[in-house]
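Objective 1b: paired records.
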Amino acid sequence: MRRIALYPGTFDPITNGHYDIIERALRLFDEVIVAVAISSDKKPMFTLDERIEMTEKAIGHFDNVSVVGFDNLTVELAKAKGATILIRGLRAVSDFEYELQLGYLNNSLDDSIETVYLMPRLKHAFISSSSVRNLLKFNAKTEHLVPKEVQKIIGSMDSCTLQ
């Protein structure tokens, strides 16, 4: 049986930390589906289509990774895609309580789905999408925080779009 994992998030934008988690997940699972949430309540800087494009460009060289957008419960998407594992990233202790509650909630909705927590390498542990967005608002350097393919897309955008 193929082990399919779903890695859900807003990915606004995808960072080197996210990329690192995807690489680590590929060592453990046969297939990884990166699920980009609409997350309108978070008021993302980038549109869903832009976030999907950035993610596809960043991970396009992997054969066993795909990207989907979604606007439903994560466990429903996992079931529809045949995934039995949810991947969640942990950067710091501050992430743990939220992620643990989310894992328990998802398990209460479907106990056939397990949550696996992965940590990025230490050099990526400080990176968050929100810190990247804050830097972009001030036209600051971000190329050390996001995959080069994502930086190309961001660099080609009008600076008014990034406000």
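Objective 1b, second protein:
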Amino acid sequence: MKLSDARVIIEGLIFAAETPISAGEISAIVELDVNVVESLVEEVRERYAEGALLIRNVGGGYQIVTKPELAPWIEKLGRPVISAPLTAASTETLAIIAYQQPVTKAEIEQVRGVRSDSAINNLLDRELICELGRKAGPGRPILYGVTEKFFEHFGLKSTDELPLKGISEWK
């Protein structure tokens, strides 16, 4: 396969994928080395630099999205770009989960100082967090962590990109 053909196929795969598609997944489909795939994705990304679209590397994969500065016009289509904003309680709870995962409800509430049932349910409904299993010990409480949708929503590749990731006072 010619690299120019592979580049077009890769662009089509990224566009058609419902969720971010990884270089490994693309590699398996087009039967090219992962490094070659990543290089071709970069070429496509550079071609998009002048247009309305961009390729983001989020949640361990690639996704084609409109540039953020186009949001005011896209919202006029009647399709809001961003869903209702998170409440302060949900944002605070999400931050605790992102920085401390895996974490139990009791541990979240210890940091927040208030009950967190509603915030946790809101985040579960939005699929920004998920249950990771249960902690060993009395009552076997549920452990929570962030989802791939969290990474997509915030444009992150991993929790290593969280601001002030080195904070140790929380633990």
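The domain at 3-75 is CATH 1.10.10.10 (Arc Repressor Mutant, subunit A). The two ends are 51 Å apart (CA to CA).
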